[in-house]
């Protein structure tokens, strides 16, 4: 052990800071403050500590930013190309191919015969028992027209002429219902003066299907019907030939009711039938209509 005598430092008394005049409470705030000689060191220590904290945060953030992302990235939809058009397989209801009729250019200056009217007309459905008619603008060489006429599907029938310009084809058996029929007249058809068709004449038409009621007024099962209502029936295709109201006396009137209703039926056109009761219908009664025609 050393024999050097120990020394003790005498405490140094420091005067307490006095409050600044004119600023109440400032002395209280400064009573716990360090001396001017030590305050800068404290602030420097705090600043250094803050700087250290900021540096640590930056390091952490830098580490997070640099850390490889091991999470599963969200699925991104890949670009898809539009589907290509595919051929539709033929079905039982597919339209048949049109007739392939050859074409031969006619000499310039020739005046060719022309079909000015036909039956069935464009958009008209032919009755399966109907006939095909072609009307020309001049008298025709009948043998050449008959040889140039073709129907597809092939249907046997008879040929006649209403006059020198009107060709008529009547099938031996009814055309199939709801079928598509193609008609062609080749350039072999010629007029009486020897001029041939400038180009083949072709068209197609559809035959009528089974007769169906498209709408009734009142509707089936309707209740609280007006006693003075007029019964109306609309069909999917013509039922009668086109006539005037005065010519309807001999037309069929197949609409009946159960229980019977006194009244009169008339055709507004070829496919619309109306029935007007003679007296207002009795209340609380149920009537059943029956249309017995066959198209």
Description:
It is a single chain. The chain is an alpha+beta fold and 295 residues long. Among the domains are: 93 residues, Sandwich (Immunoglobulin-like); 79 residues, Immunoglobulin-like (Sandwich). Helix content is 14%, strand content 25%. The protein is built from three helices and 14 strands. The strands form four sheets. A four-stranded antiparallel β-sheet has the order 1-3-6-5, covered by helices on one side. Strand 12 and strand 13 form a beta hairpin. The longest helix has 28 residues. It is elongated, with a radius of gyration of 52 Å. It starts with 25 loop residues before the first helix and ends with a strand.
- Please report the distance between the alpha carbons of the first and last residues: 141 Å
Strand percent estimate: 15-25%
| Annotation field: number of helices | 3
Characterize the largest beta sheet: strand count, sense, and whether it forms a barrel: 4 strands, antiparallel
Give the CA-based shape: elongated
CATH topology of the domain at 115-207: Immunoglobulin-like
The CATH architecture designation of the domain at 115-207 is Sandwich
Average pLDDT reading? 76
Q: Provide the spatial order of strands within the biggest beta sheet.
A: 1-3-6-5
